Amino acid sequence: MDSPFSTSTTLTLGFFLCLIAVQSQEDVNSGSQSQSPPPVSPPPPPPLQPPPPPPIPPPPPPPLLQFQPPPPPPPVSPPPPSPFSPPPPSPSPPSSTSPPPPRKLSPPYPKSVQDHRNVSHHERENHNARHHTPRGKLSHTPKEKKLNLGKKIGLVFVGIGVLLQLFVVTFLVIKRKQLLKAEIRR
């Protein structure tokens, strides 16, 4: 049988190895959080513009008469092409050379908005990119510290291992004391 010294040394060594594993896992998690980009400051509020006037509602349709004309007859389909005739020409795709619709001129901006217009094009693109990113893809902030499922399961097993080792060490210490008392009585 092993001596109590070697058993307690083995248990203590195992306990410290578990502590080192847990500590290194925490260091990895905190290191990955420190390497993440700093949280983005909230974008400035958009310039205030007067609300557009409410649209004018369309005039109500004339009252419906009880008599409605019958629907038009369906168009007559062309006869099927003969096997010896050349195939009909395919419709040409619509040309994309039509000019885009002209933009409406905006009303003059207040002074604060004109200053905002002097911001470089690059800064505006960055602002728009940050403003339009979906919420699910934002970088993790420190308060949103989340572990994936594998890390959670691993930490649970490490915790269970540490608790089991503590229970075993406690049990062995109690049994050792009982055995020492029993030997002294002899």
Automatic annotation (TrEMBL):
The keyword Transmembrane helix applies. Residues 113-128 have a biased composition (Basic and acidic residues). Residues 26-144 are annotated as: Disordered. Residues 36-110 have a biased composition (Pro residues). Keywords: Membrane, Signal, Transmembrane, Transmembrane helix. Residues 1-24 form the signal peptide. It comes from the Eukaryota. This is Uncharacterized protein. Residues 129-140 have a biased composition (Basic residues). The chain crosses the membrane at residues 153-174.
